[in-house]
Amino acid sequence: MNEYINLDEKNIEEEHICCAIGDPKHQDGVDKKKEWIKNKLKDGHVFRKLNARGKIFIEYEPIETAWIPVNGKNYMYIYCLWVAGSFKGKGIGKELLEYAIEDSKKKKMSGVCTIVTQKKKPFIGDKKFFEHFGFKVVDTIDDYELMVLQFDDKDTPKFNDNARTMKIEDKDFTIYYSNECPYVEYEVKELSNYAKEKGIKLNFVKIDSLDKAKNAPCIINNWANFYKGEFISNTILNANAFEKLLK
Asked: Where residue 246 falls among pLDDT bands split at 50, 70, 90?
């Protein structure tokens, strides 16, 4: 039987958060992610992981306080469900999702929602996996889809209007990011140094509050790339990837 751990104020300092395990260059990002989680626990944030060394976890919280430009009431929003490497194919993802669903029912929520894409993208959930559990698409922006598992007939969540254009006024290469993801902090520093060395104009916009997250011009808040005012992707870039993209 699999053993799971829910992070709380008592164990968060000693427990790893699955991503970027044992990679010293990402320690600053891990520390900031833990701080972000600690600040979100009061909102009902849940980070549940397998008691093992690996990327095996689910992370969710009520939609009203979730850092995502989605509007809704009394729904749970799943940020991330990740089962990687040798842990795949063992029913762990099923157990994690079922826990979130049952937890949401116990808390008298109206349903559970998450974001997927029509074509698989990094750090985005698997649409077919959620379909298997009865999730249905209720809103779409380009390739991004909002999926919902409803428990009652109350109104379903939808994307905020500010995120629908996926455009910004700034024409320079601009990256929106937040500490929802422990990988971003190192890449922000790496790209900042690279842009300075090459004389490239590169802007960073940090999403560091619920208000900024809800009113963001992009669906994914942990990392979003814009160029010439247009959304490009949610792919987290290092210096090499950024250079190839510019070429």
From this structure: confident
